[in-house]
Design goal:
Length: 449
């Protein structure tokens, strides 16, 4: 038990801001590296395979993100559950891993539906074939992605954000090398980029699995087949926390796909532009997600230790840090729009459209910063907060995408990105009702009982 306690990082002591920075910085780096998977793919296909290939990666990525959010929600549920019960990890670990793998296997059944799905979202016919290729290869590799996220969620729940960052850094390096080999040297195009991504993600999964297996005694999990059996009491808790996160992200992703389907009607160039802008916006979103994950683990441990006042401090510090990072991204996007877009495409038509999209992206950074505080609610499965964010995004994006003067792909893209802002503002308003006063009072009464 002594070894186990040293394996777990206690986040309930010391300065909240210092703890939050030290814990979330590796998470930010890990999330940024994960975004780099798709950014690297877009860079190589955009520079070496042309605008058609860049559009194919952008379109198929929207669909794969739907799948990613499903098992990511399960992994986050497992992470928060682990953070609250670090002294009872044996069954929780097995249930979290099994649930993530099951979800990914179920989603693989959609592979035969790739062509109908892509036609449903108005994928241009001239790139339908290569888009389907990228989508099928990435979907087939989702099992390792799900398993990796579940493994790293367990580590983060125990307060270890360093090793997940190391694993994803190694896999990102593998992805970059293979992207260069497959796309730039062997000219495999979109298929090469997809295989590079799958192999890189599998590498991260192997490293995470080997690390936890070697630490199995400290973890208290024997990795025997019987230990992976699902137990209803643990499954209920993981799903209670993870399901609202999945629903929220599905709302947002469906809204993105809905508006993108209208934008794709304008052709390959419009698809390439909205794809690049969406990935650039995700750079800030992953920072916000790191704040959510970091604060969720800190609050989970603080609630388990009965330190309710520390919970409130975590919320405010997470919001402050998120806003600081937003300012940095806004300055970069406003000062260097053309230069940033030219990284992913040398097509003048794509680069020309950079400034208006970057302006809307900058506005949306504020929404991402406002969302940095809702991670603590995730660790208890706060359904209302998760639903509000997704529902506002679902309603705001289509409304912004259809201006009174008629549908135009620049306005459509701006509307797509602008829809996130109401979600952030709604979350801010809801927090006054749900956190911290009511939540702390509920938990104080629960503790007394």
């Amino acid at each position: 038990m002594a070894n186990k306690s040293t394996f777990i990082n206690d986040l309930t002591e010391g300065s909240v801001m210092k703890r939050l920075i030290r814990f979330t910085l590796p998470l930010m780096l890990a999330n940024l590296l994960q975004v780099c998977y798709n950014l690297v793919d877009m860079f190589f296909v955009g520079q070496y395979a042309g605008t058609d290939a860049l559009s194919a990666v952008s379109i198929s990525s929207n669909v794969t993100m739907l799948m990613f959010f499903c098992f990511m929600g399960i992994a986050t549920g497992g992470q928060i559950y682990v953070a609250q019960t670090v002294d009872k990890l044996d069954r929780i670990v097995g249930n979290s891993l099994t649930l993530c793998v099951l979800v990914s296997l179920i989603l693989m059944l959609t592979i035969p539906l790739a062509t109908p799905i892509l036609r449903l979202i108005n994928t241009p016919e001239e790139i339908l074939g290569v888009t389907r290729t990228y989508l099928i290869i990435c979907t087939a590799g989702n099992v390792t992605v799900a398993l990796y996220n579940a493994l790293c969620g367990i580590l983060r729940g125990m307060g270890d954000s360093r090793h997940p960052t190391m694993f994803v850094a190694i896999s990102t390096a593998v992805n970059i090398v293979l992207d260069y080999l497959f796309v730039a040297v062997l000219h495999w195009g979109v298929a090469g980029a997809a295989w590079a991504t799958v192999i890189g993600q599998t590498t991260a999964c192997v490293f995470a699995l080997v690390y936890l297996f070697r630490k199995r005694e400290m973890l208290g999990f024997d990795f025997k087949l019987a230990s992976f059996g699902l137990k209803s009491e643990h499954v209920r808790v993981i799903l209670r926390i993870g399901a609202p996160i999945i629903i929220k992200n599905l709302f947002i992703s469906i809204s993105v796909i809905f508006v993108n389907a209208m934008i794709y009607r304008f052709g390959v160039t419009a698809a390439a532009v909205i794809g690049v802008c969406g990935k650039l916006q995700s750079l800030m979103q992953v920072i916000s997600q790191a704040m959510m994950d970091g604060s969720a683990s800190m609050v989970g441990q603080s609630v388990g230790a009965g330190k309710q006042e520390r919970v409130k401090r975590v919320v405010w510090d997470a919001t402050l840090l998120g806003a600081a990072f937003a300012v940095v991204w806004i300055l970069l996007f406003q000062l260097f729009p053309h230069q940033i877009f030219s990284i992913f495409s040398n097509d003048p038509a794509v680069i020309e459209m950079a400034p208006p999209f970057m302006t809307v992206c900058s506005i949306n950074m504020l929404a991402a910063a406002l969302m940095s505080h809702h991670g603590p609610h995730q660790r208890r499965g706060r359904h209302t907060l998760q639903y509000d964010r997704g529902h506002c995004g679902l309603r705001g994006r289509p409304a912004g995408a259809v201006p009174p003067a008629g549908l135009h792909h620049r306005n459509g893209g701006a509307g797509l990105l602008s829809g996130q802002l109401p979600g952030g503002l709604c979350l801010r308003a809801r927090r006054r009702d749900l956190f911290p006063r009511r939540m702390v009072e509920e938990e104080r009464l629960a503790g007394a009982a």
